[in-house]
Please model this.
Amino acid sequence: MKTSAIFTAFAALAGLVIAAPAADTSPVAIPARAVEESPPPLSYQQVVPIVDAEEAAIAKREIEARQGVFITVHVNWSGGNAYISPINRGACADLVSSWKNVITSFGPDPGLVCWIYDGDWCTGYSYGPIYNPGFADLSSIGMNDRINSFICW
Ligand SMILES: *[C@@H]1O[C@H](CO)[C@@H](O)[C@H](O)[C@H]1NC(C)=O
Model:
């Protein structure tokens, strides 16, 4: 059973309530992802549907633990960037100060739905829902260099 790996992943994301992108020059991977590597793809004939509810729930959590939000400081996914993952669904992610008021591209992975806020801790003006691929230029919705926090499910 992969339960321990999942617990590790979720314990790790509990520490990410303050999602912590740091520098703005090099790609920064933020996650403590204790998720196993993906197995090689299976042919259709080999796929065994998951019927056990607990197993299905575990599989769903493993998929969710791989999802994240890609952010950059310049338009069209350029400039300093970070990938915030895993996402603690339903918990506000308050950005560290170096990432407040600088984000220009905001891209949730497929399967996530997000709201962005111009105040700390998901307060103030908000915009959502945002689905993949997100916004290459947040000025189109009046949110360029204005995100201070966000929340996703
Ligand atoms: C961003 O991409 C769009 C669409 O391709 C393009 O029209 C626009 O000029 C680009 N902006 C910059 C600043 O590169």
About this structure: Residues 31 and 85 are 5 Å apart (CA to CA). The pocket of 2-acetamido-2-deoxy-beta-D-glucopyranose is lined by residues 75-76 (CB under 6 Å). Helices lie at 3-14, 53-65.
